[in-house]
Each structure stands twice: as structure tokens, then as C-alpha cells.
Amino acid sequence: MKITGRVRLGTKTKDLVKELLEGEIAIIDHKDIDQLAAESLIERRVKAVINASPSISGKYPNLGPRRLLAAGIAIIDDVDKAIFDKLSEGDLINIKDGQILKNEELLFEGEVLNTKKVEQRLEQTKENIGVELNKFVDNTLDYAKKEKHLILGIDIPKIDIKLKDKDVLIVVRGKDYREDLEAVSSYIREVRPVLIGVDGGADALVEYGFEPDIIIGDMDSISDKTLASGAELIVHAYPDGHAPGMERIKGLNLKAKTFPAPGTSEDIAMLLAYEKGAELIVAVGTHTTMIDFLEKGRPGMASTFLVRLKVGSKLVDAKGVNKLYKSRIKPKYVAEVLVASLIPIIAIMSVSTPFHQLLKLLIIRLRMNIGF
């Protein structure tokens, strides 16, 4: 394997992908690469990924590396973290079978991941998943005790946009969010629900031609252009009221309200819609499984359990809905539809005098041609 390209470095993948250019080599420090990070790197059409950490540590079955390899992107794994000190933005490097060279000087060496290695390591993670599940459940119970006021009551900020008796669509940048958003696009156009983008989910709405009505989150993974689109802005703050995301809002000369609460931004987006009287809450790209939350780096998902218990009667999860539209139409069904559509035509023709006369003429002509 020989790859030549210029590098771009970033210890946080979600920040790095904003700057990456097509054909560059991404140098990251991302333990257990998740699918969302992999998709972001693929979109940027990078030549290769050099990871200072293990791309699969064995903690849980993270599928990001498999996705990268399937897209034809090489992975040089578990390289010394000192690579961030040795290389600078735009440096031209060569990768030769795991060796990383600059001006023919060997700087570092990592492991070249291939499909076989990735599948073996993913298989090995299954042995550890029971341990992680036990930790996960214990942590979730601990969080539930601390976050139970999410069910009992929480202070909801006043907002300008009316949600009462309306459909609300909440978009989170989670697994398959693009496919699911595309699948519900017709629903958005026909019903015109209030659109809430959770951080990067607001960019996803814009990408598909929709304008978010409300943007809620930490404001750390969303473009300046979308923030300035005119949507009502709500910054997710810590329970003590501290809201780091407000610094960015003020830097853009924008105004926003704060929503102090534990849990995730997608949780408080659902709470906002529910407490403001939404008729229906449709969620796209939200995190719902243990793997989702392990990838997200959250030790427990108590807030999500509690929030979904509270809003469950109004919540419709669109996760995976795109797969409903991918099944092939079976020939048997096509034949049945054709037969059903021909029945009324045949019935009309059977009682039609002109048709009877035409049929007799055809039979006579046929007998003449074959000599009867």
C-alpha cells in the first residue's frame, strides 16, 4: 500500500471534518471510531485515516472502521500520539505499508487495518459486550436517580414559536439520519411540522432544503450559516446554568435562550416539544440503543429512558424508516395488481355487442388463414 497526500490534523473528528479537503489524509485521535464519524470522513473523500488511538479497542462493536474500509479508505491504526507534534497542517507525507514518511524520513509506524482484522476484532468485542452491558445498566440506574426530575418536572424556557397542537419533527445527526430524513421528506412538505434541529441536525435539515424553526443544543457542531438562518436558538446549559455554547452565539451577534438540564440535547428537544403541547413528535436520527450511547461516549442513558417514558404517547421514532422503502416489489404482487385491474375491463367487454362482433370476425379470419 502506497499513499501520498497532504495532512490535516485534529484530535476531535467532528471538528476536523469541517476543515478537511478532498484527497487529504486525516490524522485523528479517535478511540473506537463510530459510524457517524466514519460517514463524515467518507463525505470529505479523504485518501486515508491515520489514527493515534485504536480504532477498535474491544470495548464494544463499533462499526466505523468497517464503514471506512468499505468506502476504500485506508486506516493506519494506533500510531504514536506524538504525530501531532511532528506534523503540521499541509505537510506532504507518504504512507508505505503502515510506515509514515516525510521527505523519505520515517516518522512513525502504525498497523494497517484490513477487512479481515476488523471483522476479527468486532467478533472479539462480543465477548466483552456482557461486561459493558452490566456497567451500562448500573450507570443508567445511578443517572436515573439523579435525573428523575426530568419526569417529575423541569423548568422549560419560554419560546416564541407556538408548538401547541402541532406536529413537531426533531432531527438529530445520528446513525442513518440522512436516509431517514429523506424518507420523511414528503411528510414534511405535506404536513409542515415545526422543525427542530439538534446541533448538526439543523444542518441536515438545510441540506435537504428545509429551514429549521428551532435550533437547540451545545452549538458546537453546527455551521455559522445555519445558526444565522433566522431559527429560534436555544442553548443547552448545565443544570447550574452555565452554557458554554452562548460564547459562540454572542460571537456571531445572535441571541439565544438557555435551557438548563441534565441529559442530552435531543432529550431536552423532546421535552420542549412535549411540554409546549405538541400533538405529535417525530424523531429522526435519535440515539436509542446501547451501542448508540456507547458510541456517543455517554456512560448511561437514563435521561433518554425517562424522557421517552414521559413523551411516549406522542412520540414516533423514524429511525430506520428508510428501510421500509427499499424492499423490492415481488413479481407475484405485480401480476396480482395487473389481473385485478383487468377484471373490470373484461367484465365490460363481455357484455359489449361491438366487441362480440369483432371477436366473431377475428375467429372467422383465423379459420380462413389456417384452412378450416
Description:
- With 372 residues, the chain is an alpha/beta fold.
- It folds into three domains: 2-120, Aconitase, domain 4 (Alpha-Beta Barrel); 148-324, Rossmann fold; 331-370.
- It has 16 helices and 15 strands.
- It has helices spanning 13-16, 35-43, 64-70, 83-86, 115-147, 149-152, 177-183, 185-191, 200-207, 224-227, 245-251, 265-275, 290-296, 302-311, 331-350, 353-370; strands at residues 2-10, 25-28, 48-51, 74-77, 92-96, 99-102, 105-109, 111-113, 167-172, 194-198, 214-217, 232-237, 257-260, 280-284, 315-317.
- An eight-stranded mixed beta sheet has the order 7-6-5-1-2-3-4-8. A seven-stranded parallel beta sheet has the order 13-12-11-10-9-14-15, with helices on both faces.
- Helix 9 links the parallel strand 10 (194-198) and strand 11.
- Helix 2 (35-43) runs parallel beside helix 3 (64-70), helix 5 (115-147) packs across helix 14 (302-311) and helix 12 runs parallel beside helix 14 (302-311).
- The longest helix is centred in the middle third of the chain and has 33 residues, at 115-147.
- The protein is globular, with a radius of gyration of 28 Å.
- The relative contact order is 0.10.
- The mean pLDDT is 84.
- One of its GO terms (molecular function) is thiamine diphosphokinase activity.
- InterPro entries: Put_SteA-like, SteA-like_C, TPK_catalytic, TPK_catalytic_sf.
- Keywords: ATP-binding, Kinase, Membrane, Nucleotide-binding, Transferase, Transmembrane, Transmembrane helix.
- Pfam families: SteA-like_C (PF12555), TPK_catalytic (PF04263).
- Residues 319-367 form the SteA-like C-terminal domain.
